[in-house]
Specification:
The chain is about 35% helix and about 20% strand. The protein is an alpha/beta fold. Helix 2 (about 45-55) packs antiparallel against helix 8 (about 215-230) and helix 3 packs parallel to helix 4. The longest helix is centred in the first third of the chain and has 20 residues, at about 60-80. The radius of gyration is 20 Å and the shape is globular. The chain binds N,N,N-trimethyl-histidine. The site of N,N,N-trimethyl-histidine has 11 residues, from strand 12.
Length: about 325
């Protein structure tokens, strides 16, 4: 990591290994609306906090998606005869197991390709899954999916590309379409794409999911500052920032911000000092909510079409099956 000054390197950071981090942070903090990428949330502590968030009563997406997967995958894997699962942003592979179990039940589970930014994290998950699924070839790919997929050359077909957890919501529309197009370019005719998207719904319910009563989301948000301190030697004081999350009805997204509670100057080695006014914010995440039309439009722009979307009007989350248009 040549340009990452590690002034307080107390231990290995699990998931942040991006040599372009300083440049990306510099660009984000010099924009009129200061902005940092949500990918900087996920060091060890951030990943733990996110997992705790997924268990909160207010945070409906994870448990809803898991139930949808459990209900649909056994039948879908039988229908498709999927031999390879490629998973974008594999996380702890908990949901992957639901799909892999359904593939194994058909006797066709041949290859699993988890894609993640952290090589360390990936090889741990890979080793674990090799033990759990003897006969399954696990070929992790280290890649920042916002840039490339870095897939192995040979994949048993048909393959299922899965992008779950509504992480697509973190991408601004042009980047979301570029990502879908990248998946489309890697797909062969019999392949499928499985997308998990959070849906538009009652605003109070969405906002509650990002303003939990235990304050875990606030801690998760502030943790990004600790990641920057650790990775770049920055001197952010997390106590000088307040968590703010609100739904924007025009762009259909949650925005998370860190609001400077006082006038302050932040130092990051290698950059000019960064002044923040009292009340000025840094946007740390967008979480876009979709509906059928907006998914169809993004798919169309990327050369995909919706093949199946088992909709239950009461389910606040979407699991969408796409094919090449
Ligand atoms: C992991 C991006 C799907 O947008 O809901 C949870 C992250 N941020 N609470 C989301 C998150 C605040 C989450 N994603």
């Amino acid at each position: 990591m040549p340009n990452l000054a590690r002034t307080r390197s107390s231990g290995p950071v699990e998931r942040i290994q991006n040599p372009g981090m300083l440049a990306e942070v510099a660009a984000g903090l010099s924009s009129p609306q200061k902005e940092l990428s949500p990918k900087f949330f996920y060091d060890q502590r951030g990943s733990e906090l996110f997992e705790a968030i997924t268990r909160l009563p207010e945070y409906y997406p994870t448990r809803t998606e898991r139930a949808l997967l459990a209900g649909w995958m056994p039948e879908l894997m039988r229908q498709l005869g999927t031999r390879t699962l490629i998973e974008l942003g594999a996380g702890n592979a908990e949901k992957s197991r639901i799909i892999l179990d359904a593939m194994r039940a058909t006797g066709l589970a041949e290859m699993y390709v988890p894609i993640d930014v952290s090589g360390t994290f990936l090889s741990q998950t890979a080793a674990q899954l090799r033990r759990e699924y003897p006969g399954l070839t696990v070929e992790p790919a280290v890649a920042d999916i916002s840039i490339e997929l870095n897939l192995p050359r040979h994949l048993p077909r048909p393959a299922l590309f899965a992008f779950l957890g509504s992480t697509i919501g973190n991408f601004y529309p042009p980047a979301a379409i570029r990502l879908l197009a990248r998946v489309r370019a890697a797909m062969e005719p019999g392949d499928r794409f499985l997308l998990g998207v959070d849906l538009r719904k009652d605003i109070a319910r969405i906002e509650a999911a990002y303003n939990d009563s235990q304050g875990l989301t606030a801690e998760f948000n502030r943790n990004m500052l600790l990641v920057l301190n650790h990775e770049l030697g920055a001197d952010f004081d997390p106590d000088a920032f307040a968590h703010r999350a609100f739904y924007d009805t025009v762009t259909h997204r949650i925005e998370m911000h860190l609001v400077s509670t006082r006038a302050q100057v932040v130092e990051i080695p290698g950059l000019e000092p960064i002044p923040l006014a009292a009340g000025e914010s840094i946007r740390t995440e967008i979480s876009t909510k979709y509906d059928r039309d907006s998914v169809a439009a993004c798919f169309a722009a990327a050369g995909l079409r919706i093949e199946a979307w088992p909709r239950d009007p009461l389910t606040p989350f979407g699991l969408v099956l796409g094919v090449r248009a």
